[in-house]
Write a structure and sequence with these properties.
By secondary structure, the chain is mainly alpha-helical. It contains 58 helices and no strands. The longest helix is centred in the last third of the chain and has 22 residues. The radius of gyration is 47 Å and the shape is rod-shaped. The N terminus is likely disordered. One of its GO terms (molecular function) is fibroblast growth factor binding.
Length: 999
């Protein structure tokens, strides 16, 4: 120093530089005075003139004439150079590049003046009044006044000139952290400890930038290293400073200039301009350039607001009321506050401004898993082990930050057999993030990246919360492959953990608390909660939003069997073996159900579908029966009929399906065929008949707890006339009986019992029928006639007897009578008929009056087809008194007294009564006697108008006649006479000789 610097001021400059280390009091006082003098005139600063002369002239920062002393000597020149340095970083337009030596000199001056704001002459004069206004009690030295003014920079009372000077100072700090005395001092040890300033000889190197310092020390904190509290406090101040004023980040000023001018001009800088840019980055206001997007992402990483929400001033102010009400139980500054705010997103506690600021920040946090400090802390070990990650502030092209979370959640839902799973703590955090991302499609980077085109194409009008993902799921088959894969994976995850659907869980909170709280609290098994919600979809606690959400999830599940987690886990091996290459859930269910049914019918020793799959298959079948939309083939076939015949009918509770059944005759051919097939399946397995099981739920518990599922309807029919039977259930049973009698294929018990009789006696009807048409009870009518002829097999006869007895009480159970006698019933028997199906109250029922009315008015019936049906009824009742309820009721006592020993069936008891009527010694009840006489008259008339069609009919008429003994005697006498004549008269033909025979 003595050799080269003597007489040039280097000695004084050196002492100024090291004034903090001077221990001699008088020397320290002297240097302090000299510092004030030196910094009052840039020409007195050691070496400054030599290094910056050209730049001062080029930037027009003042004239450098020897001995000249003007206003520029009061700090204006240094300020001009500082602004030029800052502008160069922000513009990079190449107009004038300050020489490297001058840059070092400018930063050195700023660094030397960092402890006492008096030494920054331009800032001192610009902020004198503001210092008095805001920082009157702040003692100068160690950068305290700077910090105080920084904290008040955006106060309305702050002068614009002071604000500009402070901003310039902050921009210099962003380029070299040593320009902040307090930060450099507080973090000096930690910077050295974690090697954050390896090359101290390059003050403007990368290591000197504030962003590098923050990232380096934040990385240490996130790794669990110890950073002094004083240093962390300083870091917090400067992270808040970066979030508060976007202009302190030259990359944002440089790359986001267009976005700022177009969308965010004129906004106050109190963090609001940055949030405006973040909102543009989300796509809420248009598109953003990639460089701007990356600059925003870098700033969020540098400021790391996820670690402490207070860093984001705009968020802090917008969400203060929400934090006070919803998150007051969390310690101030805890990272969990951000998570708490996300949990209350779209709830009544959330305010609109907070919602916007929160989503804007979360959009960028979600794109780098490290920016969620809780996730990083719990998952950094798993990420390193499974996803080969680097340090907190390091990146890898092979595994970019956005891909790490995808890697983590793929491992989060692996089974033990699949191996390499996440730790318990990490899985909890991954689930938390998934819950948050489900709230807004833009919080899922992969989804937004791969589905931008599809979102614009299919879902541009779906702007409400949660609608975009639902829309993508609805159009799953239409999406491009990359988007379809992402949506499919997310839907598959939702099926395993429905709590990911946070909005759905909120909507369903009442029903969860009332009916599914144990499942929700314990999570007994994955997928149990959704199954519970489906089972309780029509409870009174269920609101419209929950019903819509649950039904939507059910509809999405139909697109791929993997979207039903429990079904997938129970049946995946069976699907691969028995139903390969089938993806749609409904097709898989049909495939497996068909396999189970075939194995059951063939009585195989071992079912091909596993027990656990059959159990879950039953759950899926029952769920599908509740809503026609869950059976896409049926729904697509009947869409037009639904809009035409059932426009105001709700889909739930199988109401649309029931409406189609009731209007079956009016359905288009394709829909009619599908509905018939559905009814055929339901009759074979009544548990799949949702309406029957719902309406008769309590009656099933009362009467049929021990009944097999396939015999449920039979059990209900047997108990139909019990006094304890619920009228609505009774009505539903009658509906199903009417359906069964329309076609023998809908009565599996009859079909099995009469499998030999039907082709034997009714083949002509079967030959004329087509698969698309119903038989309108023709086969059953055919069997009824053969029952009257006593030609059916015993099993078939038993079933037809039941049908005859039921239809004798209720004319609606006889389809052929309905078809051919509708006009006569309404004309002759209006007092007894109910008109259209079930137009009366459920308590009213048929007791055979309509049938009796038609019999009594037989002579008044005009249509031959109707008359024939009534004659058939008479013929049937003649064969069995039990199928004539009016006669049976009138003669019940007489049967008990006179025919008790006679077994029922085959006309035996009827013959007994006829003989009793003819016997003068027997006294029948008057009503019975009258009814019997009426029947004799009817049969006599029937014999006249409907003579025997064949020998069998003739024999039946003789055997059932009251004078059968006389008739049989006369027939026997005639045969005997013929035999005797033949015996006595010999051959009538001429004998032929043996020769003629042998010839």
């Amino acid at each position: 120093m003595r050799g080269g610097g003597a007489g040039k001021g280097y000695l004084v400059s050196c002492l100024v530089d090291h004034r903090g280390n001077i221990t001699e009091y008088q020397c320290h006082q002297y240097i302090t005075k000299m510092t004030t003098i030196v910094f009052s005139d840039y020409r007195l600063i050691c070496g400054f003139m030599d290094k910056c002369r050209e730049d001062i002239n080029a930037l027009h920062c003042g004239s450098i004439s020897a001995g000249e002393k003007d206003i520029h000597s009061q700090g204006e020149v240094i300020s001009c150079l500082e602004k030029g340095l800052v502008k160069e970083a922000e513009d990079q337009d190449g107009r004038h590049v300050i020489k490297e030596d001058c840059k070092k000199a400018i930063m050195r001056v700023a660094e030397l003046s960092s402890d006492d704001f008096h030494l920054d002459r331009y800032l001192y004069f610009s902020c004198r009044e503001d210092r008095e206004r805001f920082c009157e009690n702040t003692q100068a030295g160690e950068g305290r006044v700077y910090k105080c003014l920084f904290n008040h920079k955006f106060e309305e009372a702050m002068s614009e000139k002071c604000r500009d000077a402070l901003t310039t100072r902050q921009k210099l700090i962003a380029q070299d952290y040593k320009v902040s005395y307090s930060l450099a001092k507080a973090c000096k040890v930690d910077l050295r400890k974690y090697r954050c300033n390896a090359d101290t000889n390059l003050p403007r190197a990368r290591e000197a930038r504030l962003s590098y310092l923050l990232l380096c020390l934040e990385s240490a904190v996130h790794r669990g290293r110890t950073v002094s509290g004083e240093c962390q406090g300083e870091m917090l101040d400067y992270r808040r400073m970066l979030m508060e004023d976007f202009s302190l980040s030259p990359e944002i000023v440089l790359h986001c200039r267009g976005e700022i001018e177009t969308h965010c001009s004129g906004l106050h800088r109190k963090g609001r301009t940055l949030h405006c840019l973040m909102r543009v980055g989300r796509g809420d206001k248009g598109n953003v350039e990639n460089l701007c997007q990356q600059a925003l992402q870098n700033l969020i990483q540098e400021a790391d607001p996820g670690a402490d929400y207070r860093i984001d001033r705009a968020l802090n102010e917008a969400c203060e009321s929400v934090i006070q009400t919803a998150c007051k139980h969390i310690r101030n500054g805890d990272p969990m506050i951000l998570s708490c705010l996300m949990e209350h997103l779209y709830t009544e506690k959330m305010v609109e401004d907070c919602e916007h600021r929160l989503l804007e920040l979360q959009y960028f946090i979600s794109r780098d898993w490290k920016l969620d400090p809780i996730l990083y802390r719990k998952c950094q070990g798993d990420a390193s082990r499974l996803c080969h990650t680097h340090g907190w502030n390091e990146t890898s092209e092979m595994m970019p930050p956005g891909a790490i979370f995808s890697c983590l959640y793929r491992h989060a839902y692996r089974t033990e057999e699949q191996g390499r799973r996440l730790s318990r703590d990490c899985k909890v955090e991954v689930q938390r993030i998934l819950h948050q991302r489900a709230l807004d499609v833009k919080l899922d980077p992969e989804l937004q990246k791969r589905c931008m085109t599809d979102l614009g194409k299919w879902c541009s009008e779906k702007t409400e919360t949660g609608q975009e993902l639902e829309c993508l799921q609805d159009h799953l088959e239409d999406l491009v492959s990359d988007c379809r894969d992402v949506v499919g994976n997310l839907t598959e995850l939702e099926s395993e953990d429905i709590q990911i659907e946070a909005l759905l869980m909120r909507a369903c909170e009442p029903v969860i608390q009332s009916h599914c709280h144990e499942v929700a609290d314990n999570q007994v098994d994955t997928g149990d909660l959704m199954e519970c919600l489906v089972q309780n979809k029509h409870q009174k606690e269920m609101n419209d939003k929950c019903v819509v959400g649950v039904t939507h999830f059910q509809l999405i599940q139909m697109k791929d069997f993997r979207f039903s987690y429990k079904f997938k886990m129970a049946c995946k091996e069976d699907v691969l073996k028995l139903c390969p290459n089938i993806k749609k859930k409904v097709d898989v269910v049909i495939c497996l159900s068909t396999t189970v049914r075939n194995d059951t019918l063939q009585d195989v020793k071992e079912q091909r579908v596993s027990v656990k799959c059959r159990k879950q298959l039953r759950v899926e079948e029952l769920e599908m029966s509740e809503d026609i939309r869950l059976e896409p083939e049926l729904y697509d076939s009947c869409k037009q009929d639904i809009s035409r015949l059932c426009p105001d009918v709700a889909f739930g509770n199988a109401q649309v399906i029931e409406c189609l059944k009731e209007n079956k005759k009016q359905l288009a051919s394709r829909c009619h065929q599908k509905v018939f097939k559905l009814q055929e399946v339901e009759m074979m397995d009544p548990e799949l008949d949702y309406q029957l099981m719902r309406v008769c739920k309590q009656m099933i518990k009362r009467f049929c707890t021990e009944a097999d599922a396939k015999n449920m309807l039979l059990c209900l029919k047997q108990n139909k006339n019990s006094e304890l039977m619920d009228p609505k259930c009774k009505q539903m049973i009658t509906k199903r009986q009417i359906t069964q009698n329309t076609d023998y294929r809908l009565n599996p018990v009859l079909r099995k019992a009469c499998k030999a009789d039907i082709p034997k006696f009714c083949q002509g009807i079967l030959n004329k029928a087509t698969d698309d048409s119903e038989l309108e009870g023709q086969v059953i009518s055919c069997l009824k006639l053969k029952y009257a002829d006593q030609r059916l097999s015993p099993d078939c006869e038993d079933q037809i007897r039941v049908i005859l007895q039921e239809s004798a009480l209720d004319y609606r159970l006889d389809p052929q009578l309905q078809v051919h006698c509708t006009e006569e019933i309404s004309r002759l028997c209006a007092d007894f008929s109910e008109g259209p199906f079930f137009s009366r109250s459920p308590a009213q029922e048929q007791t055979g009056q309509v049938e009796e009315c038609l019999k009594v008015n037989l002579l008044k019936i005009k249509h031959d087809t109707c008359k024939k049906e009534v004659l058939n009824m008479l013929k049937e009742s003649k064969a069995d008194i039990f199928v004539d309820p009016v006669l049976h009721t009138a003669c019940a006592l007489d049967i008990k007294h006179h025919c008790a020993a006679i077994p029922p069936g085959r006309g035996r008891q009827m013959s007994c009564l006829m003989e009793a009527l003819a016997d003068k010694r027997v006294r029948l009840q008057p009503e019975c006697k009258k009814r019997l006489q009426d029947r004799i008259d009817m049969w006599s008339y029937a014999a006249k108008v409907a003579p025997a069609e064949g020998f069998s009919d003739l024999a039946m008429q003789v055997m059932s006649s009251p004078s059968k003994n006389y008739i049989l005697f006369m027939i026997a006498l005639g045969v005997s006479i013929l035999f005797l004549v033949g015996l006595l008269c010999g051959r009538i033909t001429k004998r032929v000789t043996r020769e003629l025979k042998d010839r």
